Amino acid sequence: xxxxxxxxxxLSVSPGERATLSCRxxxxxxxYLAWYQQKPGQAPRLVISDASNRATGIPARFSGGGSGTxxxxxxxxxxxxxxxxxxxxxxxxxxxxxxxGTKVEIK
Amino acid sequence: EVQLxxxxxxxxxxxxxxxxxxxxxxxxxxxxxxxxxxQMPGRGLEWMGIINPGDSDVRYxxxxxxxxxxxxxxxxxxxxxxxxxxxxxxxxxxxxxxGPSGVLDSWFDTWGQGTLVTVSS
Lengths: 107, 121
Fold this sequence. Notes:
The structure holds 2 protein chains of 2 kinds.
Chain A lengths: L3 E4 L2 E4 L5 E7 L7 E6 L6 E5 L3 E2 L7 E6 L2 E6 L9 E6 L6 E2 L3 E5 L1
Parallel strand pairs in A: 2-11
Antiparallel strand pairs in A: 1-3, 3-8, 4-5, 4-9, 5-6, 7-8, 9-10, 9-11
Chain B lengths: L2 E4 L3 E4 L4 E8 L6 E8 L5 E8 L4 E4 L8 E5 L4 E6 L8 E10 L8 E2 L3 E6 L1
């Protein structure tokens, strides 16, 4: 089973600043990584697919990068609605797995 | 509009059986994979399994194999997740999500609202 490790666990950022989240895989997952956003009491929402493609309706301030084992999600100019928990997920091998999540909180 | 609507919250006792549902609308239900994801209280997300409603091809995560059954009823565009004997540790929110059509070469981009299952002893 492929393990995904996210860092940091919590990121404290002021509105308008940039947030950079990391996801590291235990083996190469090529570009088969997605990022999901989850707000309290809500279902996850797909943000980035295939490492760098923004999902439908996702603002341009969200960007993803990386390949192989190291990936990043960058949110440039944090808006109030961006404060949430973000999970990475791989679909290279079944069972698909999620990282443990990074909480982006208001500083 | 593509939508997945899940069944209402459930409160059950340990040892009881349960079947929760996920109804798809706004698209051709048999053509798209459906997945189930567990979120235990205050915890992260875990894939439980996926089903192709068109041919009932089911894949379980090893952690959930033998613990749950995933099924689908094409005529009523509904997928199910069921337990025969609930444990307290099954207390969680369960999400269904819609995946790609045919080959598993894309992501699960539409999610249900979640069903909270509470199991008391």
